[in-house]
Design goal:
Number of strands: 8
Helix content: under 10%
Distance between the termini: 12 Å
Shape: elongated
Strand order of the largest sheet: 1-8-3-6
Strand content: over 45%
Largest sheet: 4 strands, antiparallel
CATH topology: Jelly Rolls
Radius of gyration: 16 Å
Amino acid sequence: MSHALRVNSINSWYPEGATPVTASSGNVAASVATATITPAAGKTAWVTGLMIFPAGATAGAIVNATLTGLVGGTITIPVGAPTGAAVAGYPIVLEFPAPVPATAIAQAVSLSMPSLGAGNTNAAVTLLGFTV
C-alpha cells in the first residue's frame, strides 16, 4: 500500500480526492466514549488530530484513552478526571504534524476512552481526518 499523498491545490490542505471526515462519540455519562472513522471499500483512513473532553466523577481518576488502527501501532493518552461530578476536566486537543494512515486499506481507526467512573456525567472524544 502506498501512503504517498499529492496535495489537491495550493489552497487546500487535503490531498487530491480526499473526503474530510470527523467522528465523535457524542456525550456519554460514566461509560466508554468511542469515535471511529470507517473508510469505504478501497479507501484509506488518515487521522490528522483528536480531541478528548473529560469531566469530573465522584472520585478523581486517570484512565488511558487509546487510538488504534494506525501505522506505527496503538497510541495511548492518559486522561484525568477531576474529583467532583460537576467539575470540568482539562480538554486534550492534538493536531498531528502530518496525517497518520491506517494500517491497511478499508481499516477502521478508533479513539476510545474508558469510563471516567461513577458520578461522571459528561465525556466525549472526537477524531479528525480524511479518507482517500
